């Protein structure tokens, strides 16, 4: 009972805070001092483009980002894609795209196309297909809707 009430209260608070202020709040909670969005993005871009980074560290950075209450910026998404491609892990790159799409939440109809528009040149350069090109956006065994018959 308490878990349900706490969940509803958390949802109500998240709805009133908004994306940008929650991003700053998440950064403050992690580092104890205020960090601008640009510095945050640069830090993760630098992390993913480090020399000698391995697959485990890339996964850790991606999981840390996806665990925060924010949608990664296109520059950070591109840096993660380049890192995954550098260690030759295309499955990780596709999962990264899928995780970023899920982070869009209820704004998926507007935010995800914007992200795709910004990162499409990088996807083409690296040879990484989108989730939609692979058909992962639709369930494999889905039945036709009765309204489409």
TrEMBL record:
Q: How does it sit in the membrane?
A: Peripheral membrane protein
Major localization class: mitochondrion
GO function terms (MF aspect): metal ion binding
UniProt-listed InterPro entries: Cyt_c_oxidase_su5A/6 (IPR003204), Cyt_c_oxidase_su5A/6_sf (IPR036545)
What cellular component GO annotations does this protein have?
mitochondrial inner membrane; respiratory chain complex IV
Set out the biological process GO terms recorded for this chain's protein.
mitochondrial electron transport, cytochrome c to oxygen; positive regulation of cell cycle
Q: Which domain of life is it from?
A: Eukaryota
Q: Answer yes or no on keyword NAD.
A: no
> Could you tell me where this protein is found in the cell?
Mitochondrion inner membrane
| One Pfam entry name | COX5A
Pathway linked to the protein: Energy metabolism; oxidative phosphorylation
Q: Which of UniProt's keywords are assigned here?
A: Heme, Iron, Membrane, Metal-binding, Mitochondrion, Mitochondrion inner membrane, Transit peptide
Q: What does this protein do?
A: Component of the cytochrome c oxidase, the last enzyme in the mitochondrial electron transport chain which drives oxidative phosphorylation. The respiratory chain contains 3 multisubunit complexes succinate dehydrogenase (complex II, CII), ubiquinol-cytochrome c oxidoreductase (cytochrome b-c1 complex, complex III, CIII) and cytochrome c oxidase (complex IV, CIV), that cooperate to transfer electrons derived from NADH and succinate to molecular oxygen, creating an electrochemical gradient over the inner membrane that drives transmembrane transport and the ATP synthase.
Give the quaternary structure.
Component of the cytochrome c oxidase (complex IV, CIV), a multisubunit enzyme composed of a catalytic core of 3 subunits and several supernumerary subunits. The complex exists as a monomer or a dimer and forms supercomplexes (SCs) in the inner mitochondrial membrane with ubiquinol-cytochrome c oxidoreductase (cytochrome b-c1 complex, complex III, CIII).
Family per UniProt? Belongs to the cytochrome c oxidase subunit 5A family.
Please state what the protein is called: Cytochrome c oxidase subunit 5A, mitochondrial
Q: Which organism is it from?
A: Drosophila persimilis
